[in-house]
Amino acid sequence: MAGKAYALLGPTVSGKSSMALELAARVPAEIVSMDSAQVYRGLDIGTAKPSAAERAAVPHHLIDVIDPDRSYSTGRWRADAIAAVMDILGRGKTPLIVGGTMLYYRALVGGLDALPQADPEVRAAINAEARSRGWPALHAQLERVDPQSARRIPPGDTQRIQRALEVWRLTGKPLSSLQGLARGTLPFSLKAFALMPADREELNRRIAERFDAMLAGGLLDEVRALRKRYRLTPGMPSMRAVGYRQVWQHLEREISEAELRSQAVAATRQLAKRQLTWLRSFPELERIEGNAERLAHSFL
């Protein structure tokens, strides 16, 4: 093994980023982002991306990797993350992988499943069906061809419904039958922690407060500027991120600003709920509450 890296996972608004910055002030660490939205350039406000001052104080990796009109896969993140960790270790620093994209973490520690690459034509066909028939009809279709995945994927999770149907159409096999077959090895050891909020009501309150701050901070103008600069569509992964999806709908006059706010907050709370479910499924995680001093002892 080349060295040891650490991972800090947690639901949205749980304080992962602030704890990571505090840790980096105690330990010579560099942060590797594990956030599937922060990889996109220009998605700053709605992803709570670290500020320029924070990134100047502590080196961050895998932020602003790609333009928002492109796709960034789990496989690419895994390869990029391993390369970043090895680079940090090679310079005698401590790698700290931080984020809430649980699929990225699962891929990092378990390897990638034997799944086909995304197919733009198949995805376009699925999106066209969704526009004409609605996503509930496509979720019902998924129930027929892959009931195990349909039970696991909520009817409102359009991105995962699309991917499950895409895999079925490309391979003729259910996504559920292809998952869990791969194993991956890492060229470094990894110790992972889960930042678990003690009070769910407090977490929900903070989610609402942070989204209100994002709106006040110019989230709508940010998306307007992105739409002018790039050839974006609502089906692109960047614009399907929580918050951005609802802003897009508002700018298309599909929902009011009040509905934008309420739907985005509700979607973020659902995201946090899914993240907590994921966290409970990883038995290797050491669960902690918000105490950077305690966590820092593991690095010393």
CATH 4th-level superfamily of the largest domain: P-loop containing nucleotide triphosphate hydrolases
The first-level CATH class name of the largest domain: Alpha Beta
How are the strands ordered across the major sheet? Answer: 3-2-4-1-5-6
Gyration radius over CA? 19 Å
Question: Which spans have pLDDT < 50 for at least 5 consecutive residues?
Answer: none
Estimate the helix proportion, in percent: 40-55%
- Total count of helical runs of at least 4 residues: 14
Shape: globular
Q: Describe the main β-sheet briefly.
A: 6 strands, parallel
Reading the helices and strands in chain order gives: EHEHEHEHHHHHHEHHHHEH
Describe the model.
- It is a single chain.
- With 300 residues, this protein is α/β, with parallel strands linked by helices.
- The protein has 14 helices and 6 strands.
- The chain folds into 3 domains: 4-114 and 183-198 and 277-299, Rossmann fold (3-Layer(aba) Sandwich); 120-178, Histone, subunit A (Orthogonal Bundle); 201-273, Orthogonal Bundle (Helix Hairpins).
- The chain has helices at 16-26, 52-57, 74-90, 102-110, 120-133, 135-145, 147-152, 158-171, 175-178, 200-216, 219-229, 244-251, 257-280, 292-296, and strands at 4-9, 29-33, 60-61, 94-99, 189-195, 286-288.
- The longest helix has 24 residues, at 257-280.
- The mean pLDDT is 90.
